Each structure stands twice: as C-alpha cells, then as structure tokens.
Amino acid sequence: MQASLRKFRTFLFLSSIMLLLSACGRENLTALEPKGYGAEQSMKLILLTTIVMTFVFLVVIIALVIVIVRFRKKKGDPVVTPVQVEGSKTLEAIWTIIPIILVVIMAVPTVVATFQLANTSDQHKHINIDVTGHQYWWHYEYVNEEFTTSQDLYIPVNTKVYVNLITKDVLHSFWIPSISGKLDVNPENINTMFIEAYEEGVYFGKCAELCGPSHSLMDFKVVVVSEEEYEQWVNDMKSFNTDQLELDTVAQEGKALFEEKGCISCHATDTQNYSPGNTPIGPDLTQFADRSRFAGYLEPTEENLKDWLRDPEKLKPGNLMTGTYGELSEDEIDKIAQFLLQLSPSKVTAESKE
Length: 354
Ligand code: CUA
Known about the structure:
The structure is a single chain. The protein is an alpha+beta fold and 354 residues long. It is built from nine helices and ten strands. α2 packs antiparallel against α3 (89-118), α5 crosses α8 (330-340) and α6 (302-310) packs across α8. Dinuclear copper ion is lined by residues 133, 136, 172, 207, 209-211, 215, 218.
C-alpha cells in the first residue's frame, strides 16, 4: 500500500513537471527555436555548453558507479587501508588541466560571438530605429524614414536593423526571444544592437527588467515582413493623415472629442507632426486599428477599448494615463472608440502576417 502510494506520488510529480515544461515551447516566443541572428548565436552557445556539461556529468557519474560497484568491500574481504594517493602530481595536473581545456572550449566561441554581436561599425548603412522604453510601452522612431509609431515594430526580413535603446523613466530591457538576445534600456546612455529576422511572421517581444507593477504587461510585437511590404508600410505610414480620413459622423465626433479632451496632447494619431527626437508622453496611436494588441496585451476590439477608456488602472496598474482625463460618458467613450478604430494606415498588418 505504502509503496504504491509512493509510486503514485512520483508519477504525479513527474507528470506535472512534464506538463509545466511542455508549455514552454511557443514558436514565436522561444529562444530555443531561433528565427534570427542573435537568437541563433545564443542557441549555438547553449548547445555547446550543454554538450560540454553533459560530458562532465557523464564522466563523473560513470566513475562514481564504477568505484561503488567494483571497489566495495565484499563479505569476507580483509580490512585493508587502500593505497593513499594524496599529493600525486599527475592526478593534480589532470584535474586542473581538463577543466581549463573545457572552459577554453566554451569561452572562445562565447567571446567571439559577444564581440560580433557588439560590433556596430556598419550601423550607418542600415535601418536605424530609436527605441524608447516607457512604463509600460515602447516607442519607435524610424530615423531615416522620419516617422514614429509605438508597440508593433515592423522590420523587413533578412535585413540588418539597428535599434538604439533608451528609457524615458526607469530601467527596462529589450528582448525578442526568437530573434535576438536582450539588452538593457538605461536612462543615461543609448545601448545599440542589431536584429535580423530570418522568417516573416509576428514575434513576441518582452520587457525583461522588473520595472513596476505592470512590468509583465510591457509586451510588444515584432512584425517581420517582406522587403516590398516594408516599403509599402513605410509609405502608408508616412502619408497617413487623420484630417484626410473619410470618417462617419460618430467617428468624426470622436475625433473632435479626442482633441477637446486633450488626448491629442499625449497621443499622436497620424505621422504629420513628426519632429525628430521628440518622445511623446503616451503611445503613438497612428496604426491603432492595425495593432495586434494594445496596452501590451489586449486585443484591439471595441469592447476592450471601451473597457480601457472607462478604467485603464483596472487593466494595467500603474499606467500613466489613469486620472489624466476627467470622467467620460458612455456616449463619449463610444465616439472616441469609433474614431480610434479607424486608425488603419496600411494593409500590411500583424494580422496579415499571422
Ligand atoms: Cu519595462 Cu519591465
């Protein structure tokens, strides 16, 4: 009875571990299935160190088993003191030199990869995006293309793209597990790294530094598109002008409310007022209706958007929008939502790539 209970417990334990670990693999969120240069370099190093460590583990375990089985005292064996080997120069040399060799095997490729990833000498030849971390969202300035957007980062496939990272408030960390390693986002200096994605699609990005109560909701998406789609998207973004949108009456009233209530002073809704290096107070909403998520994690549906406008604090604790605008009536919320859901500059969207 006791034994079967123990077996059952072991079974339960192992199966729950299995369940837990099997949930770790999400194709566009895992560093273990690299889809970009930085992630691929990391994966090679992970494999190398795992192989070396497995080798060490096996050697130690095999030696231990041999010693236990072969040299154990059997019935009737005389009591003897084994040959003492302390101070043996040969043995000391062996177990000093082998670990040094193993460390060198791991260290050389690691240092080479680190220097390769930190080499930014060709930065001026490539697309540069200035990324600003905010509690709890990301702002992107496409430096050469001269426009800005937030949250969904669009990049062309198989192309080197430089991201220059800085924060407006506390420390964050920029991480796209499937595509690149992570890099700290500091307030006092710009950290630069390049990313290069090998496959089109939508990838998860994460803030990897505990930065406040909504740190875990500081997600973003990286939309990797073909070169033609990227050009199309850039053109669509640059020419997007809300004053030229054909809006129905409700959305038109929403647009007026958006300005009247002061939302416009924190949130841009098109790319027409671009001024270089200017970081806004709130996320750029230029492609709000094309976003895969808003507030980091919510689907941009009408219901979610209205919930958000009613009480952002409930959905994202510690966000800076809470309490900055007076109470909105249900009618006003509806109108503003109808306006925001018209902000769709391009046919190239996250949805079209999923
Ligand atoms: Cu930003 Cu965590």
